[in-house]
Amino acid sequence: MTADPLRLLQDPATAAVLRRDLGAAARGVPYDVGAGLARFEASLSQGTGVATTSARFGGVSGPLAVGGLLLAGGLAAALAWALAAPEPAPVQLGQELAAAPALHSPMVPMVPVVPDVVPDVVPDGPVMPVPDEPAELGADAVATSRPVKSRRLNGARNEVSAVKVDASADYLREARSLNAARGQLGQDAAKALALAEAGIAEFKDGTFAQEWEGIAVVALLELGDESARARAESFLQRYPSGTYAPRIRQALDEGAP
Amino acid sequence: MKGLTDSRHTPPEDGTPPAPPLHLDAAKLFREHANFVANFVVRLGMRREEVDDIVQEVFLVAHRRGGFIPGAARPTTWLAEIALRVTSATRRRLRRSREDADVQTVTGAVAQTRGPGEQAETAEALRRVQQALEVLDEPKRAVFILFELEGESCESIAAGLNIPVGTVYSRLHKARKLFMEAHSRLVGAGPKLPASSQMVTQ
Question: Do residues A218 and A247 make contact, with C-beta atoms less than 8 angstroms apart?
């Protein structure tokens, strides 16, 4: 196998000005991963909730299917009632996030507004939207992004899949709680801390342990709590490249004597 | 690249609890590599307001493909291939050529951390690199960015972009020649007007 050539940046034969320019470019542009992740989670929760439950309950048949039909009827009635009722004002999750101080201003993702109320029961009718694949993407990707057809063919059995009781519900709940805590940063640090500590306790085996701890540390730093520095250093040791690491480092630097 | 894979591909061997849902890995992949993807997309010449949409799309596609599977490619080069496709599709959609590179996005980043003198110098350096990149067509540009700025190996780039490693060497060789010529011209031309005045408006 041929060895890779020496990179221009490391090659002494490269003009000094070019090496300096490449060095500057290689450092890159900061991107607000926290906000981007929140938006991505919102997309995932819309796109995967239905598919997950469908897979879980796809094999149910017989009496259970009849029960499922009855249950689905009830659900449809509940849904119709809910749709007829005045629409509740959705919690402006995106606005909460946007209101939080931006970690890096150059590239801050726009977080979509996601209603805080995600029903625990999802009707089997309309499938949650999955963003379209760009036209030129490979067939492999396209094929895996359309679960709708097989769902229709499964008929009544899939009615039971409306009941959402699997792990994705916990995931959504955790993501929602996390976003609520994150939204308090920069506004009400004590509340952010309380929500973060509650999240840490409630979601011990959750997905966002790093984010919960990060929010708690940032909140402590905002409050000027004496335990903040030790906890921040512990966080940076555990998650040196974590989502909240740059923000915590910046806060520590600003607070340094 | 431990921990970045789809849990379906790495079943627990020691009686550990069952694998978490797929999207958990997607979140982790995002956390680890969103910054890389954002920078890659910026260097490909996309504008600031388009970058986050493209980053989101890249990770959604990655998720739909079932996550990253360890192999010759690294997660970064694997994501770069998706980013290239998404970026191309976005460009076509926007009917915009790559000459619209958002130099301001790149140079604006330095305003965060440096003093005025160093900031101006770094901004000028970034402007030159970004403009020199614009002389490259997209395949050469992608290889150049991944090798020279991201430090990826040619083998990993080849695996990620699904091209022979010989093609990577060839593209890199041509890209370097074109890039250095363009950069040299830009250095000779001296400092330009502020980046914002270089922007192509629609």
Answer: yes
Residue A57's region, left for phi above 0, alpha for psi from -120 to 50, else beta, is alpha
Q: Using CB atoms, pick whichever of A18, A130, A140 lies closest to residue B180.
A: A18
Provide Rg for chain B, Cα atoms: 19
Over residues A178-187, mean pLDDT: 84
pLDDT confidence of residue A220: 93
Q: What ipTM did this prediction achieve?
A: 0.70
A&B contacts, CB < 8 Å: 172
Which class is B21-193 in CATH? Answer: mainly alpha
How many Å lie between the alpha carbon of B176 and the closest alpha carbon of chain A? 9
| A254 and B CB contact within 8 Å | no
Segments making up each domain of chain B, as ranges: 21-193
pLDDT digits (tens, 9 = 90+) for A7-23: 998 888 888 889 988 98
Mean of per-residue pLDDT scores for chain B? 75
